[in-house]
Amino acid sequence: MADVMTESETDVAVVGGGPAGLHAALVLARGGLSVTLIDESDTLGGQYYKRRAEQLAVAFGDFRPRGTELIREVRDAGVVCRTGTLVWGAEDGGRTLFTSDVRTGVLGRVRARATVAATGAYERSLPFPGWTLPGVVTPGLALHLATMDRVPVGSRVVLAGTGPFLLPVACALLEAGAGIEALAELNHPYRPRPSAVAGALRQPARLAEAARYLLTLARHGVRVEQGARVLAAYGDTQVTAVDIAGADGTVRRVETDALCVGFGFRPSTELPRLLGCRTQPDRTGTEQLPVVDADGATSVDGLYVAGDCAGIAGVHAAGVRGQLAARAILRRLAPGRTPVRVAGLRRRARALDRFAALADRLYPLPAEAVADIPDATQVCRCEGVTAGEIRQAVATGWNDLHGAKAATRAGMGPCQGRECGHIVAALARRDEAEGFAARMPIRPLPMAATVEGQEVR
Amino acid sequence: MTQPDVIVVGAGILGASAAFHLAERGYRVVVLERGAPNREGSGTTAGNLHIQAIHTRRPGQEVPVDSARLLPLQLRASDHWSRIEEQLGADVELRRGGGFMVAETAAQEQELREKHEWERHAGIPTEVLTGDEARERLPLLSDRVRAASWCPLDGYANPLLITPAYLAAARRHGAELHPFTPVTDIRRVGDDYKVLSGDRSWTAPVVVNTAGPWITEISALAGIHIRMSPVAIQMHVTTRVPPVMHHLVQHIGEGMSVKQVSAGNLLIGGGWPAAGLDMAGRSTVSLPSMAGNLAQAGRILPFLGGLRLLRMWAGPLAATPDEMPVIGEVPGHPGFFVAGGTYAFTLAPVWGDTLCRRIAGEPPADPVDDLGPGRLLYDDATTPVSP
Questions:
Q1: B132/B251 same-domain check
Q2: What do you get for the CA distance between the two ends of chain B, in Å?
Q3: B→A interface, C-beta within 8 Å
Q4: Is the domain of B334 the same as that of B250?
Q5: Are residues B253 and B268 in the same domain?
Q6: Beta strands in A287-402 (DSSP E)
Q7: CB A444 to CB B290 under 8 A?
Q8: Strand partners, B7
Q9: Residue B121, domain extent
Q10: Touching check for A98 and chain B: CB below 8 Å?
Q11: Which of A383, A450, A454, A457 is the best substitution to test chain B (most B C-beta atoms within 10 A)?
Q12: Number of residue pairs across A and B with CB atoms under 8 Å?
């Protein structure tokens, strides 16, 4: 096992087994290249095509059967699937990936001729008073519990933040038996301007999906309160109440046992950034995105990005982008072997990108999101650093983002600023969007193997 | 202030210490820093307070440090450090938990004993323990430890706190700090030096060059050619764990230092080389160095194998070709002082005090003439050994 784990060569390494990675791997393998698909989780599927544990699948049925099918196709196509494997570092433009077995800590190295980073996204949290109380979670966690385990995150749930994602989460919560006390959507996406409606009409399937969710909510008597936001959460050992400010500014207190707050997603770009690819700010101006061509090729030769890692656009765009990146690699590494048609895919990708841009306009981040964080509120929960402490460090005049980190320890904890980095950056910003640099190890790395003297190279 | 008494170039720990000592004595001080203060070697170093002799070479280090020579300065540094938090009115996470330097072989044990003799002569309290005696004091040490020297004065201070604390104290005494102000030229104007940063300038009779790896570059602006041999070394830090160890653990045979910092993380270093020195940005870490350093640390402290590596980073070390510190006025260039080189972190309070006394025309507390920059000067026409 150790020998197998430590060294391997492949034509293409795909990092991330979600929709983008699965689609990319499938196209590549069917095109005749050897493919190694690496994912940190025990199972493929990523967040969207998440797998239920075996017994739960027997009890509750298959979750999103398209995912099961896709994973089977990938395996049947001969893709080497390395689940439970963390990519913690990379060099040489991604042609060398450093891995660690999540369970044993055994180190490995994968050499590839091209690499696809399909590392997905994180949920975006914005700190507010009380956000670190037990019982305050992201919508994604609530969805996971509801769909995988059929466990409602609470019985009187408050769902808040912004984004289309709140709707399926609300529906899944209802299906899992939760009561929804309030659904506070920060923006006004459901009485949009005519221009937005026109844009949405070009994606009838997405529109129908949203309508289905809204209908389900209406059937359960759940009203989407637009223009409403969470001000603070209260409780001693667990969240018990939430202050919600309505569109008209009136504040009401809602009793709750679970508060789910999320503000959309942020791309997980550590791997391409670690490899030094050129980046530019995304549409929100808060994240650095790899600069890519129509197929997802980055400025680093041989490194491609696909899926939300290339900019948040959702599952359908992820699949298309994965296929595009794969076809670009096929043209390069296996020219002439397969007829490669991409015009239709590119058109589809552009349409989905326009739809994502529309979503960004319908669900903008709160303008003063960071400025409004009270001084006493924790920003970096790993190290317990408040917004005030970071502001104070910046106010000295000699601390930029990195200085603020050094002065306060914000971003030095186990998540290495993955959660708070965008907030600290906004608090410390001197000129333009910048964030914490991506460093090895990308995730905390079990040291057992290294300490035993296992060679890294 | 455009006409200070002293212009300090570089806001690392040495510049900050010099600024503090000078400002405290009433000198009007301006500190110019090319980027953010404490960003480079001073902020990326391990933070060890080496009071027992540093006898170990970094991996790849060709010339040994003259360990015995440095001991009086280390003893002096020990005194300074024990007063530093009071002096600066700041918590710098100073810990004096003592330190082990371990030996795995008979030859290494012999080195420990020689080192112990020098330390005894210098008045530094150390004792040589058997492996079992050392394990009795620190049961985390492995059976591989054959002997260890113990010094109760060894310790640690947080590198992220000490330089800002020095700078804050210097500013309370009137010093001016200009971050993001790279020095672009230094001109002799009468008996003064005019130091420029773009279209801004400051003029003073004294310049202190504490620019670390940029010492050569800054000196050259004044027509002074000082040979330095900067390298990049790397550090490793684990995720936090509850307190398990309050000592510094080093190795006599190979570069290694391990300690637990106040936040609970284990910091593992030892001067292992990074992939290369990048003066324009952050140097890249070397994975073979990571593997080597962690394997060696884990051999001495096996519990490390149960931890997770959180982060690693590289930073510059302003080494000199002879691996000894450099401190003093440049011969032929009155008023132009340099401080840098080996073990600048431990020696920072001593160098700040020494520079201050020299500038005041007083003898330093310990003789340092042999460590002056004269030995590193080279002729304009010759090319220095490139780093």
A1: yes
A2: 36
A3: 33, 36-39, 43, 160, 164, 177, 179-180, 238-240, 263, 282, 285, 287-288, 290-291, 294-295, 297-299, 302, 304-313
A4: no
A5: yes
A6: 288-290, 303-305, 378-380, 385-386
A7: no
A8: B30, B207
A9: 99-152+231-317
A10: yes
A11: A450
A12: 94
Hunting for tokens 């939760």 — which residue is that? A178
Beta bridge partner(s), residue A263: A162
Domain shared by B196 and B218, yes or no: yes
Instruction: Please report the domains of chain A, with CATH numbers, ordered by start residue.
Output: 2-122+266-361 (3.50.50.60), 125-263 (3.50.50.60), 366-452 (1.10.10)
If 0-12 CB within 10 Å is exposed, 13-18 middle and 19+ buried, where does residue B281 land?
Answer: exposed
B80 lies in the same domain as B161:
yes
Mark whether B6 and B127 lie in a shared domain: no
Final residue belonging to a domain, choices B317, B350, B369 = B317
Strand residues in A235-294 grouped as ranges (E): 241-245, 251-255, 258-263, 265-267, 279-281, 288-290
Angle at B307 (CA atoms; ends B306, B312), nearest 5 degrees: 145
Same structural domain, B174 and B88: yes
Tell me whether A103 touches chain B (CB under 8 Å): no
User: Nearest by CB to A445, which of B298, B299, B308?
Assistant: B308
Domain CATH code at residue B240: 3.30.9.10
DSSP B95: B
* Local confidence pLDDT in tens for the 387 residues of chain B: 889 999 999 999 999 999 999 999 999 999 999 999 999 999 999 999 999 998 777 888 888 889 999 999 999 999 999 999 999 999 999 999 999 999 999 999 999 999 999 999 999 999 999 999 999 999 999 999 999 999 999 999 999 999 999 999 999 999 999 999 999 999 999 999 999 999 999 999 999 999 999 999 999 999 999 999 999 999 999 999 999 999 999 999 989 999 999 999 999 999 999 998 988 888 889 999 999 999 999 999 999 999 999 999 999 999 999 999 999 999 999 999 999 998 999 999 999 999 999 999 999 999 999 999 999 999 875 555 544
User: A419: which residues sit within 8 A by CB, 6+ positions away?
Assistant: A122, A125, A380, A381, A382
What's the domain count of chain B?
Answer: 2
Cis peptide before B72 (omega within 30 of 0): no
Both B127 and B274 in a single domain?
yes
B290 CB neighbours in chain A (<8 A) are 450, 456
Q: How far from B163 is each of B42, B259, B261, CA to CA, in Å?
A: 8, 20, 17
CA B290 – CA B70 distance, rounded (Å)? 29
Whether residues A441 and B311 touch (CB distance < 8 A) is answered with: yes
- Run of H or E residues at B352: helix B344-359
Cα(B10)–Cα(B60) distance, integer angstroms: 27
